[in-house]
Each structure stands twice: as structure tokens, then as C-alpha cells.
Specification:
The protein is of the alpha/beta class. Helices cover 35% and strands 19% of the residues. The protein has a 7-stranded mixed beta sheet, sandwiched between helices. It has a 6-stranded parallel beta sheet with strand order 15-14-16-17-19-18, with helices on both faces. Strands 9-11-10-13 form a 4-stranded mixed beta sheet, sandwiched between helices. Helix 7 links the parallel strand 6 and strand 7 (156-161).
């Protein structure tokens, strides 16, 4: 029986962490990193949790490492920003048990608000970075990362991208090693980062980086492939696959360690090729350092800083090929849209009717920015909606925000929204915050959080009550309203945006996709009664369509019986039908 299986990159990361003897894993769900934790929790001997946010996840992993066991934190690239505070400091402190952070970048912006390059964060934080190029390497490199972490007394970042995390490859399964727990030794000079200690540790970090850069020339994760020496390419990660497809006969230096760079290895490779290219997605992290050493190379002069690379992009840039590809089929534009029955659509339909602006946040509800709802005016990062509403009031006064609300989801509220709400209370703000509680972390695939009552393992736990939490931090005006009770919702919003105080409206309705039970009823349109006014079309439900002859129909393969359309019809043309 073969011990090789096909795995997603994220599955392979989880398997590698398991085989490396990881005992503690902490994360906040975020595409493209989410499946790492969802797979790791299935292995015996590993404690895995969803933390409220990435900073907490990083700190949990740090605590486990300090106590003497191998620990993992995983998150998407923008989550690394949230975790940056502990990350920068633990780079000074070093580790006890191996400590690895998997950072998942998103070239091409498949599910993110920016294309930042985590290698640049790691360089600033003095954290080594390892980058695999396929699922097999994902498993093996993360094991190497734990060894590296312990051997050099440092946290290690393993960088992945959407393409690697969500591509499949053949992975060889090995047995789990069980490293002995390292004894905890009290060492305040190493572990307490106050100024006097941190100054001394900074010297240690710089010496560590020098040693790593020197030793890296012998690391097995860095690989030199000499072929035709007329062209030499330095690359890493997924772009290596494109290089091998486009220039199979070129000489390649494939870097597994991308920070710090193995200078002696790079210099030796550069001497042995006639023309040197550097192929890396996003920022010129490798290129700028190589050129600073006086090595002549071509990089971003011919390659883009933006988006994902591809074999065709390399063919055009390196081979100057004019690609006569067939024009893509002309298909209708299909922008992202909220699902049929989504409670966010109901909320936004009311806000749209009232002509209220929304400071938005990160989640499914960000789609409230697109037509026909067109309610959300701003989206920056997790938890920002509440702080931005507060900033607007402090800048322009109470009158400016009387037709504004902040909208945020339940998971995002637990992530960083609660801090922003506390800030409003502390700094005597006014304004209305709407928490769109759909009982899940919807955008990343229905993960639980601190207010759902379930842990990552599925084990039941105490569910933090958002209503009582808002009350506890000093907000008197807190209301829970069904997301589909549009009349009460409209009345509540109109009253609260006019109130000269802080108010919180919690709209309650589970994500439509959480219901696994058969649909018991749907809605139908009586063509004889319908006036074709289009009111039912305004919320933009994809289950309702207007035909060429002007008639309006509900697609019974999509309708899940939320009833929003019926609430919009003034003529009683839409009725509930039991199935």
C-alpha cells in the first residue's frame, strides 16, 4: 500500500506540522490559510484552536513555545499585520520549543484587500522565511522550519500563496516524531523585552542573521540546478514551477530560504551563468538585495510587481513571445453577490431605502458596496468600521453621522470590533453600530468563533453573548432585531441614528448556508396580481429575475424561503408556498 496521497498545500502544511510533533496550533480563519487549522485539528496529539484574532493566535503559540513545546500559528497576510506586535518582539526573545508562523499571501487579490508581501514584514522583524513550491515541499519545509527554529533560537515564517495553498500535489506520509518537551527555564533577560534586555537581544538577533545567511548555503532547501548556463534564474515558491515549464533547460537557483538570503550561494551561482534573471511574485525582495551586492541581474524591469505570475507571463517577458491566444469567450459579467436568503441583503435593503451610508468592514457583508444595494461606502480592515465612524464624528460633528452607521459581522466584532466599540464609549462618542450576527465566520467557509458556542474541534463551549457584552462595556441602547423583520428594523434604525448617544443594533439571522435541513417552503409570484413595479428586485436577490416580456419570476431552484421579496411587495403578489 502506497504511503503517498494527493493533498492541498494547506493539508500538507497541517500534515507536516503533525509529523514535526507540533502540540499547539492557534489561528484566525482567513483565506487562503484557513484549511491548515481545519486539517490539523483532526490529528491526535495536537491542540488546535480558533483564536479571536491573529495577535492572540500568535501569542498563544508563543506561550506554548516558551513552555517548551513545538507550536504553530497560521494566518493570511493581512493577519500578519495584526500579529506584528508579538512577532517583532519574539524575534528578539527567541524560542524554547520550535515556533513557526505560516503566512499566506494572496497575489492576484483573490480574497483580500491588498497584495502585501509577507517577506517584507519578516525582513523588518528579523524573522527567517522559508518558501516551498509545491505540496510535497510544504510538508517537508515546515518540518525543516521547526528544526531551524530550535537550532537558531528564532521564530520562523513559512510563506505560502493562494496558488500553493489551494493546489494539489503528491505527498509522502511519514510517522510523527515526538520530540521531548523542552524544560522551562526562567530567563528574564531573554524573555522580558524591556529596553535594557531588548538592546542586548538585538545584538544577538543580528549575529543570528549573519550565521543563518552563511549557513544557508548548505541548507538542503536551497537547490542549484545547473543546465544551460547562458541563462540563470533565481526564484522561489510557486514561480519556480513556471520557470521550469517555460525554460526547462535553464540553470536555476531555487531558494527555499528567502530571508536571510544565502549570499555566498547566490554569488557563486551568478558567477557561473552568463545572464541572470530574478523571478519572484510581488515585491523585489530578493532582487533588491542581490543588486545591492553589485550583482548584475534583470528582474522587475521586465516582470510586474502586481498580481500572480503564470507560464504565459514568463514566456512573454523572457522569450519575447507574442502569444496569439484565442480571445476568451464573451460571457456575461458575474460580479460577486450575496447568496439567496442572506440576512445581510435584508439589512442593506432597509439601509438603502433610508439612504443611509455605511462604514463597512471585512466579511461577506462587504458586498453591500455593490449594486443594487450600494450601501457600504468604506472598507479598510478588520474592525475598522466602528473606529472610522468614530473618527468621522470627531472630525465633522454629530450632524455628519446622522445618516451613517457602522456595519460589522459577529466574527469580526469579536476579532477587533469590540476594541473599537470600547473606544467609542471611552471617548464619549455618539453613533449607531450594526452588528450583523449570522452565527458564523461566513466569508472563509463557516468557521466558529467565540460567540457561536463551538470550538474548532466541534466541542461545545460557552458562547459569549454579544448583547450582554455591549451592555457590559457601558452601552445603554442595545437592541436585537431579526434581520428579516424589515418593519421593526427600519423603525429601529431611524430612531437610533437620530439618538445623541451610542447605540448598537444586533441583527439576528443565521447564514442561509448553515441550514442543512430541506427547505420547507418557498415564495411564488402570482402573475395576475403582480404589477411589474420591480420593488422585489431592488434587494438584488439572484433568485428573482425579470424576463424579457417584463414578467418577474422566482427561480425555485434558488429560493430558500427568506421572504424578503414578499416584504417588499405592496400588492400581495408574492405568497408563501409549502413544499
Amino acid at each position: 500500500m502506497s504511503n503517498k496521497v494527493i493533498m492541498l498545500g494547506n493539508e500538507a502544511f497541517a500534515r507536516g506540522a503533525y509529523e514535526a510533533g507540533v502540540k499547539v496550533s492557534a489561528a484566525y480563519p482567513g483565506t487562503p490559510s484557513t484549511e491548515i487549522s481545519e486539517n490539523l485539528v483532526k490529528y491526535d496529539g495536537v491542540y488546535a484552536e480558533w483564536s479571536p484574532n491573529e495577535k492572540v493566535a500568535m501569542e498563544v503559540a508563543i506561550g506554548a513555545s516558551v513552555s517548551g513545546v513545538r507550536a504553530l500559528a497560521s494566518m493570511k497576510h493581512v493577519g500578519v499585520n495584526v500579529a506584528a506586535d508579538p512577532l517583532y518582539s519574539i524575534a528578539y526573545s527567541g524560542v524554547n520549543g520550535g515556533l513557526v508562523l505560516v503566512a499566506a499571501d494572496d497575489p492576484g487579490l483573490y480574497s483580500s484587500q491588498n497584495e502585501q508581501d509577507s517577506r517584507m514584514v519578516a525582513r523588518a522583524a528579523n524573522v527567517p522565511v522559508i518558501e516551498p513550491s509545491d505540496s510535497a515541499e510544504a510538508k517537508e519545509f515546515i518540518k525543516f522550519a521547526f528544526d531551524l527554529s530550535e537550532n537558531y533560537d528564532t521564530p520562523v515564517m513559512v510563506r505560502t500563496t493562494t496558488r500553493l495553498s489551494h493546489s494539489q500535489g503528491l505527498v509522502e506520509l511519514n510517522v510523527r516524531i515526538e520530540p521531548e518537551d523542552k524544560p522551562y527555564e526562567r530567563n528574564m533577560q531573554k524573555n522580558v523585552m524591556m529596553p535594557g534586555n531588548a538592546k542586548l537581544r538585538h545584538i544577538v538577533v543580528e549575529e543570528r542573521n549573519k550565521k543563518l545567511a552563511l549557513d544557508a548555503a548548505e541548507f538542503p532547501i536551497n537547490k542549484v540546478e545547473y543546465n544551460d548556463k547562458k541563462i540563470g534564474i533565481i526564484t522561489s515558491g510557486i514561480p519556480y514551477q513556471y520557470v521550469k515549464e517555460v525554460l526547462p533547460n535553464a540553470s536555476v537557483l531555487k531558494l527555499g530560504l528567502v530571508n536571510p538570503l544565502p549570499r555566498t550561494l547566490i554569488e557563486e551561482f551568478a558567477k557561473n551563468v552568463e545572464e541572470l534573471y530574478i523571478v519572484e511574485e510581488l515585491e523585489p525582495v530578493i532582487e533588491e538585495q542581490v543588486k545591492s551586492w553589485g550583482i548584475k541581474a534583470t528582474g522587475k524591469e521586465i516582470f510586474t510587481i502586481q498580481g500572480e505570475y503564470s507560464a504565459n507571463l514568463l514566456r512573454k517577458a523572457l522569450l519575447k513571445e507574442s502569444l496569439d491566444l484565442e480571445a476568451p469567450a464573451q460571457i456575461p459579467n458575474r460580479p460577486p453577490i450575496l447568496c439567496p436568503g442572506c440576512p445581510h441583503r435584508s439589512v442593506y435593503s432597509v439601509l438603502n431605502k433610508l439612504k443611509i451610508h455605511a462604514a463597512g468592514d471585512i466579511g461577506c457583508y462587504t458586498l453591500g458596496a455593490v449594486a443594487p444595494l450600494s450601501v457600504v461606502d468604506t472598507t479598510v480592515c478588520m474592525g475598522s468600521s466602528i473606529s472610522m465612524l468614530h473618527g468621522m464624528e470627531k472630525a465633522k460633528g454629530r450632524e455628519f453621522i446622522k445618516n451613517w452607521v457602522a456595519v460589522i459581522g459577529d466574527s469580526t466584532f469579536m476579532h477587533t470590533g469590540v476594541n473599537s466599540l470600547m473606544n467609542m464609549v471611552y471617548n464619549q462618542a455618539t453613533g449607531t453600530v450594526m452588528i450583523l450576527d449570522n452565527s458564523t465566520t461566513g466569508m472563509t467557509g463557516h468557521q466558529d468563533h467565540a460567540a457561536t458556542g463551538k470550538m474548532l474541534s466541534g466541542e461545545p463551549t460557552y458562547a459569549i453573548n454579544i448583547y450582554h457584552l455591549c451592555k457590559a462595556i457601558g452601552i445603554e441602547n442595545v437592541y436585537e432585531v431579526s434581520a428579516f423583520d424589515v418593519d421593526t428594523l427600519e423603525e429601529t434604525i431611524k430612531r437610533e441614528v437620530a439618538r445623541d448617544a451610542i447605540s448598537v443594533i444586533i441583527t439576528k439571522a443565521p447564514c442561509a448556508l448553515l441550514n442543512k435541513e430541506p427547505i420547507k417552503f418557498q415564495y411564488k409570484i402570482d402573475a395576475d396580481i403582480c404589477k411589474k413595479c420591480g420593488s422585489c428586485l431592488k434587494p438584488g436577490c439572484p433568485a428573482i429575475t425579470k424576463c424579457e416580456d417584463g414578467t418577474i419570476k422566482i427561480n425555485d431552484t434558488m429560493c430558500n424561503g427568506c421572504g424578503l421579496c414578499a416584504s417588499k411587495c405592496k400588492f400581495g403578489a408574492i405568497s408563501k408556498v409549502e413544499l
